[in-house]
Design goal:
The complex is a heterodimer of chains A (113) and B (115). Chain A is 0% helix and 49% strand. Chain A contains no helices and 10 strands. In chain A, the strands form 2 sheets. In chain A, strands 2, 4, 5, 8, 9 and 10 form a 6-stranded mixed beta sheet that branches. Chain A has a 4-stranded antiparallel beta sheet with strand order 1-3-7-6, with no helix packed on it. The mean pLDDT of chain A is 93. Chain B is mainly beta and 115 residues long. In chain B, the strands form 3 sheets. In chain B, strands 2, 5, 6, 10, 11 and 12 form a 6-stranded mixed beta sheet that branches. In chain B, strands 3-9-8-7 form a 4-stranded antiparallel beta sheet, with no helix packed on it. Chain B is globular, with a radius of gyration of 14 Å. The chains are: A mainly beta (113), B mainly beta (115). Chains A and B meet through strand 4, strand 5, strand 8 and strand 9 of A and strand 6 and strand 11 of B.
Chain lengths: 113, 115
């Protein structure tokens, strides 16, 4: 069946611009996670959605980062006023419940010039 | 805070060699432990897991045992194949509750297996 789908696969943007990254989780998965994979920091947790509960935003690095999940399905990660240090691969993952292993998408590679 | 320390790579082996990738952790609670693998051009996928002390996770010939006394979860395989070439990540999460998928990852170890 279909896995976690992320779009775009690659995004190049100029410093200071806003970007939106999209994640389509596996149908029926109630938990959705965003991670960032960068050379300097490795894999870092950003934010977690579980059903209708308030999201766990404890990993967001600054207030330029935000995410929403509409209708308990698709999620969008928004980065405002992008900086060069935001360049990374942004990974989305979903799982059937909060106590299940994660299924990761292939990621969006963001390059800020 | 919680952290995971992985053996530095890259690791280069010949086919059929024995593999060990070391992983140790620091955690305030009682974590679940995982190994994730990222094959070239693919997304991260779960390789194996263990949720309590002395549990052994295994999959595809890989094994790792949760050692609470040494806070370790070393990955082993008796005979590697070229197709095992990938990046391997050790990770932990707080067991149960809403934190199961809120993972803390190690830095990753690149494994290359030559024929």
């Amino acid at each position: 069946g279909a896995g976690v789908s992320q779009s775009p696969s690659n995004k190049v943007t100029e410093k200071g611009k806003d970007v939106e990254l999209r994640c389509d989780p596996i149908s029926g998965h109630t938990a959705l996670y965003w991670y960032r994979q960068s050379l300097g920091q490795g894999l870092e947790f950003l934010i977690y959605f579980q059903g209708n509960s308030a999201p766990d935003k404890s990993g967001l690095p600054s207030d330029r980062f935000s995410a929403e999940r509409t209708g308990g399905s698709v999620s969008t990660l928004t980065i405002q006023r992008t900086q060069q240090e935001d360049s990374a691969v942004y990974l989305c993952a979903s799982s059937p419940t909060s106590n299940s292993p994660l299924h990761f998408g292939n990621g969006t590679r963001l390059t800020v010039t | 805070g919680d952290s995971v320390t992985q053996m530095e790579g890259p690791v280069t082996l010949s086919e059929e060699a024995f593999l060990t990738i070391n992983c140790t952790y620091t955690a305030t609670g009682y974590p679940s432990l995982f190994w994730y693998v990222q094959y070239p051009g693919e997304g991260l996928q779960l390789l194996l897991k263990a949720t309590k002390a002395d549990d052994k996770g295994s999959n595809k010939g890989f094994e790792a045992t949760y050692r609470k006394e040494t806070t370790s979860f070393h990955l082993e395989k008796g005979s590697v194949q070229v197709s095992d070439s990938a990046v391997y990540f050790c990770a932990l999460s707080l067991a149960g509750g809403t934190s199961y998928g809120k993972l803390t990852f190690g830095q990753g170890t690149i494994l290359t297996v030559h024929p």
